[in-house]
Amino acid sequence: MSGRTTLRHGWAVSLAVLATITLTISPLAQADPTPSPSDQNSAQSQHQDQTETAEDVSGQADETPAEGSEPLENIETAEAVVTETDSAGLVTSTTVENPSDEFTVKDADSDPGTEANAPDETTAGSDPVPTSPEAEQPTPAQSTSSSAEPSQATSASPTPTSAPTADDGTTVLEDIQTDSVGGFSMVGVTWDTLTGDNLGLHIRTQTAGGWSEWYEVTPDQEETEQRATGVIYVEDSTAVEVQATGAAGARAEGMRAVLIDTPTQSHDPSTGSAAAAVTGEATVGTVLATNSSVSQPNMITRSRWGAMAQDGCEANSDTIKAVAVHHTAGSNNYSSGQSASIVRGIQYYHEVTLGWCDIGYNFLVDQYGQIFEGKGGGPTFPVHGAHASTWNWETVGVSLMMNSNTAQPSNAMLNSLEDLIAWKIANNYLNPLGTVTLGGKRINVIFRHGDVMSTECPGTNVTNRMSQIRSAVASRVQGKTYSNIYDTWQANGGAGGRYGVVYEMEHGVSGGRQTNFAHGSIYAASNGTIYAVHNAIGNKYAALGYEHSVLGVPTGPEICGIKDGGCYQLFQG
Questions:
Q1: Can you list the domains of the chain with their CATH numbers?
Q2: Of 349, 339, 342, the residue nearest 371 (C-alpha)
Q3: Is residue 383 exposed (0-12), middle (13-18) or buried (19+ Cβ within 10 Å)?
Q4: pTM to 2 decimal places
């Protein structure tokens, strides 16, 4: 095998070390279970339009594939060879391939079908976290990787066992055995072709406590160009097994297991850290009379969790009309200090492995109530995420860092989720109990991923709480939605009037508050005085970046009728 070195990305926090190992294995003949690697192919997927982030769960551990399915392609850890390392040693990506590049279930008369190109909904297995509703805090992970380099394997080659099979007695057609590959804590699967009926993918890993239960990652049959599952957290592991199954005539080609190591860093935020979160906007004493808007909750910014720079993202949405709730799947067994490293791993998989421009989610919330800023662009703006395909447009994607099929969300997680959604809903002037039509579907303003796509995401336990979540958000918003900015906007026709739809949600700035609309801006000074910016001045103000530009906030009204015609307005800058 040959290797090559290339610089990929530097972290915003320079010590945020992350390593990736990609295992690419096509099955050998059944008589020879030992892989014979060929020259690796580590080419990344081409940049795709961000559509569906496949972080979603639709089943349980040890789940049996549909009756009539047969194993297609099975991957277990193989001899890994480093193919790409950045010059700073921050990212290592390893690819292993066998000479064979295709495997088809043995049925010569069957039609192999068409290629399945969609991103996948991830179904995760069981984990050691208590699942009772009374468990307010999850059990922290027992071990945390803290070194910059992945730990080296010390155990012997694992004894392979097949993934759960159907009741018809089907057996594994191919099982590859190798030594362990070193340390990793997150796994994703990609492929060139995976098509046919009764398709299934199963993942398990070897941890310090032995082999984990199987996590099922189910291919989504939606027609897109992305051929991948989401990445799931699997705890500190040293070996992996991935198995594809399908009915007669199904086909698997170019399967790859992507193993990501995201060591924690001493500066990573946690619930016990004084620098755990960046404080949200302050409440301004007398602003907005008796109807103070819902304040921004504490949030861990991208720079704090060590985000990579974006790579050519699309423009923002025009406005925000709804909030989508997701979960990330995988193991629930992590500490608050590990959360930032998990978010880094998700971003790396989305941006580097899948070729997206950034992490797909707009926000993430961990089991300890920590809120992480997701995709870049500013938390108050309508950033176009990559979490629900057609429903990425005009929505906010919030992902809970848990597997809701195997555990209950903690009270801390739910409280932070509800605070975050209330902030977005109230200051975008939305009704938390309302409905909206998006992508041809009539959905709740606060909806679950599974309401718009074929997935159980955000899992059983969060799904069962969606009505409760909406009610909790409504109670936070009640009496705080209507500000004098809102009143001015409504008096001028609301979304269909002079100012148009909300673009940048209402937020605190320069001792007052401001909302930026499609056709202007309204600023409320600390004494409640309103200064509106619109018409030609408003267009120029928007083009410069609103109050974020050198102009700052308006300090007076628009004045027209000056000599030789025209209007002027004074600004802070």
A1: 302-477 (3.40.80.10), 484-568 (no CATH)
A2: 339
A3: buried
A4: 0.75
pLDDT in tens, the chain (573 residues): 333 222 223 333 223 345 555 454 433 333 333 333 333 333 333 333 444 433 433 333 444 444 445 555 555 545 444 444 433 344 454 544 433 433 333 332 333 333 333 344 433 333 333 333 333 444 433 333 333 333 322 233 344 455 555 444 333 333 344 456 778 899 888 888 888 777 778 888 889 899 898 887 755 433 345 688 888 999 999 888 888 887 877 877 777 888 888 888 888 888 755 444 444 543 333 233 334 578 999 999 999 999 999 988 989 899 999 999 999 988 999 999 999 999 999 999 888 888 889 999 999 999 999 999 999 999 999 998 877 777 777 889 999 999 999 999 999 999 999 999 999 999 999 999 999 998 889 999 999 988 888 788 898 999 999 999 999 999 999 877 567 999 999 999 999 999 999 999 999 998 899 999 999 999 999 888 999 999 999 999 999 999 999 999 999 999 998 877 889 999 998
DSSP 494-563: GGGSSS-SEEEEEEEETTEEEEEETTEEEEE-TTS-EEEE-HHHHHHHHHHTGGGSTT-SB-S--EE--T
Q: What is the Rg, in whole angstroms, of the alpha carbon atoms belonging to the chain? A: 25
Q: How far apart are CA 97 and CA 255, in angstroms?
A: 9
